[in-house]
Design a protein that fits this description.
The structure holds two protein chains of two kinds.
Chain A: E1 3-9, E2 12-18, H1 24-41, H2 51-55, E3 59-61, H3 66-79, H4 89-95, E4 97-98, E5 101-102, H5 115-118, E6 119-122, E7 125-128, H6 140-154, E8 160-164, E9 167-171, E10 180-185, E11 193-199, E12 203-208, E13 213-214, E14 217-218, E15 221-222, E16 227-228, E17 232-239, H7 242-251, H8 257-261, E18 267-272, E19 277-279, H9 281-286
Helix pairs in contact in A: 1-6, 3-7, 6-7
Chain B: H1 30-34, E1 60-70, E2 73-84, E3 87-94, H2 101-118, E4 130-132, H3 136-152
Antiparallel strand pairs in B: 1-2, 2-3
Classes of the chains: A alpha+beta, B alpha+beta.
Chain lengths: 294, 154
């Protein structure tokens, strides 16, 4: 009988769907994994492993997952000409997205510093030459979805869906012995969907400015300017790993599809501010026109 | 004839329950429906709701609260659903206690968007398991709908 474990963690709701209820030991291991990630990477926690870098230039050692995150971020940064960067954290705080909530700071956007000027991030070591607020939000949640999947694998739970509020990964036969069907929420009208895709043995992630919005601003910033993106209002991506799907969903706010497709394998849909949608693969097949009020 | 109940509830993410495009209603969450213990009038503990049609729900008007966490703090919305012949006739969403001014516009958009899509869509019209790009507000909406579905199960 399918079962669902619900957790609130890293500021989002998690649903871990399996074919049988999870035992206490697995649940504890999942909680530990999420908590460890948060303690390492959260820019909202003063005790996080990266927190000292916000106060002063220096060096920190990060957990093992740092290595692939560093590689992915560097590649994304280069491919998008700096639009995607972990240095966007200070720009976010400047616009009012902070640990204690959001505020209207009234400040103009400011571009983050150039990567090579201030940051060396290799493997599990991060070294900086200035105080930096690092933000791994473009790929971190997806990576954690993958890592929670690893925990489940280690406990012999191979058929499941790990869903962190819409950033998710289906594995094995899923929780229901079939692919999971995901609605693509319309960023213009919450509660509506622009289509449906089926996901099986892979990950799905979405990115939309409507999730974190305050004072007319949202949290997806262009690393070249430090300002919120306005051309693209929603992206949806299927890729093998959630970390990559998450990162591509962010990068699609800034970068041409062709550029990204040279480096990563994915399918996507993307909605522009005018409501136009472009889509590839199964996204094109799954789009539908939303219902109109009677 | 129109039970008007109110339930503050434990949070529970479900897929959107009422949209035609949505809803892992009973068939998708047998664990939830068969393990139901908080609504004793829901006499379907053998799981028969899974394969019954829209008549599985008692007509009436139902209200439930859902909450979600926004960057500005905890927010609450109240969802009121009117059912007739097992079909949603009307949906209202309001946020009675919002104290976070940053949320107002956000919730306004949400409220504007819901009714148009939901009217006339069968509660059991299952077509997706989950929502991608899902907003914080939708989480609260889903919570409230799940409670209503449990309450309305006849």
């Amino acid at each position: 009988m399918p079962a669902r474990l619900r957790l609130d963690a890293i500021g989002t709701r998690w649903s871990i769907d399996t074919q049988e209820p999870l035992g206490d030991e697995v649940v504890a291991a999942i909680r530990d994994r999420i908590d460890a990630y948060d303690r390492a990477w959260s820019r909202f926690r003063p005790d996080a492993a990266i927190a000292p870098l916000a106060r002063a230039a220096g060096e920190v050692r990060m957990p093992q997952e740092s290595a692939e995150l560093a590689t992915l971020y560097r590649q994304l940064h280069d491919v998008t000409d700096g639009a995607v960067t972990p240095l966007v954290g200070a720009s976010l705080e400047r616009l009012g997205y902070r640990a204690d909530g959001v505020a209207d700071t009234g400040l103009a956007p400011e571009a983050p510093p150039a990567w090579d000027d201030v940051l060396r991030w290799e493997g599990t070591t991060i070294r900086t030459t200035a105080p930096l607020v690092l933000d791994v939000g473009a790929a971190g949640k997806g990576q954690l979805v993958d890592l929670v999947g690893d925990v489940l694998d280690a406990h012999g739970i191979h058929d499941r869906v790990v869903d962190a509020s819409g950033d998710l990964r289906h594995a094995g036969a899923g929780d229901q012995g079939r692919p999971t069907r995901v609605a693509l929420e319309d960023p213009r009208a919450l509660g509506h969907a622009i289509g449906v895709v089926e996901v099986e043995g892979e990950a799905f992630c979405a990115s939309a400015g409507n999730r974190r919005r305050w004072a007319g601003r949202h949290h997806i910033l262009d690393g070249r300017t430090g300002a919120p993106t306005d051309e693209v209002i929603g992206t949806w991506v299927v890729a093998e790993r959630a970390m990559v799907a998450d990162a591509i969903a962010t990068a699609l706010s800034f970068a041409p599809v062709g550029l990204l497709a040279r480096h990563w394998s994915f399918e996507h849909a993307r909605m522009y501010a005018g409501g136009q949608v472009e889509a590839t693969g199964r996204f094109a097949a799954g789009l539908h026109v939303r219902k109109v009020a009677a | 004839m129109t039970p008007r109940r109110r339930a503050a509830l434990a949070l529970a993410t479900t897929s959107l329950a009422a949209f035609g495009l949505s809803a892992c209603a009973t068939a998708d969450e047998p664990a939830d429906t068969t393990d139901e213990t908080t609504a004793p009038e829901t006499s379907t503990s053998d799981g028969t709701t899974t394969d019954s049609g829209s008549s599985a729900y008692a007509d009436g008007t139902y209200s439930a609260d859902g909450s979600y966490t926004s960057p500005g703090g905890e927010e609450t919305i109240t969802v009121t659903v009117t059912l007739a012949d097992g079909v949603i006739e009307d949906v209202e969403v309001e946020n009675p206690e919002t104290t976070n001014p940053n949320s107002l516009r956000y919730q306004g958009e949400f409220i504007d968007g819901i009714a148009a899509e939901v009217v006339g869509v069968p509660l059991d019209d299952v077509s997706v398991d989950r929502v991608g790009g899902s907003s914080l507000t939708s989480g609260g909406f889903e919570d409230a709908l799940e409670t209503i579905r449990d309450e309305a199960a006849a």
